[in-house]
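Dear support,

I submitted the protein below through the web form. The confirmation email said the job was done, but the results page showed an empty box. After a refresh the structure appeared. I'm attaching both so you can tell me whether what I see now is the final result or a partial one.
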Amino acid sequence: MVSRVEFLTVVTFLLPVCLQGQAAPPQFVSDDLVALRGFFANLPPQVLAAIQAMESNLPPSSAQSIGIGGRLTSSLTKHYRLLPSGLEKSLSPLPAGYRRALIGGRVVILDARNVVRDMYFVPLPRQAAPKGRRPPAQ
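What the results page shows now:
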């Protein structure tokens, strides 16, 4: 039986060797996150409301597909929008075959097979809770 420490030692040694020559998928770097926060913080409330509406119109089963490593279904590919060119130019360049897109309230990095490689959640204003009826006073 291999102990946990021995296993982790072997994995730590072998993993870089196995992945040698394979580039890691692109991710949002800190400068990208600053640019995204600044961009969405300066949007008018009407645009943020439209993004919020896009989020609520996503298919109910989309949460798993939009997660990192999830592949977008054909119905979800109809819901994504490419980022505005000004914002895209302010972000770090992506390797060939990758693109950024807005899906509901998320900015994602997609590969050529529509697999989500990284994700940024757009800070959307919270919706007001629906006003319920109060129980009758006794």
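Response: this is the final, complete result; the empty box was a page-load delay. The helical segments are 4-18, 30-41, 45-56, 62-66, 74-77, 85-90.
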